[in-house]
Amino acid sequence: MRILGDYELASGQKINRSKCSVSFDSATIVEVRRSVGTILGMREVSDQRKFLGLPSKIGRSKREVFNFLSGRLEDRLRGWKGKVLSHAGKEVMIKSVTSAIPICVMNYFKLTFVIIDNLNSSMAKFY
Q1: C-alpha–C-alpha distance, residues 72 and 99, integer Å
Q2: What does pTM read for this prediction?
Q3: How, if at all, do strands 43-44 and 21-22 pair?
């Protein structure tokens, strides 16, 4: 609680505990979960898959976790298929808009070459 109070003082922001939640590792003892949640005044989230659009936990299969990237990319590209764009226009569109999708994720996670190759393949198919 002291650390959260220090954060509020340093940042000038007020923590809204009704909007906050706490997540624990599966090995955390139930009593510890309850007491920490009670002390912080926050509810426990047992299965939070995404936080701010990014995966909160990564299991064994990175391909499965980051599959949403290719879906987002293909959704963007699908909307442009009907538009008449020159070759140069397509290239500018792909490089400026679609590259922002994986770059945001790559700020936090190291993607495998397989995932990057799949994204590059999706962009190449657009041409």
Answers
A1: 11
A2: 0.50
A3: parallel
Please write the tens of the pLDDT for every residue from 53-99: 666 666 666 776 777 777 777 777 776 655 667 777 777 777 777 77
SS (H, E, C) the chain: CHHHHHHHHHHCCCCCCCCCEECCCCCCCHHHHHHHHHHHCCEECCCCCEECCEECCCCCCHHHHCHHHHHHHHHHHHHHCCCCCCHHHHHHHHHHHHCHHHHHHHCCCCCCHHHHHHHHHHHHHHC
Residue 4 three-state SS? helix
Question: In this structure, are strands 54-55 and 50-51 parallel, antiparallel, or unpaired?
Answer: antiparallel
Residue with tokens 């980051």: 66
* Amino acid letter, 45: V
The sign of the CA dihedral 27, 32, 34, 40 is negative
- Rounded to 10 degrees, the C-alpha dihedral 86/92/93/94 comes to 110
* Distances 77 to 58, 71, 89, 113, 126 between C-alpha atoms, Å: 27, 10, 13, 21, 7
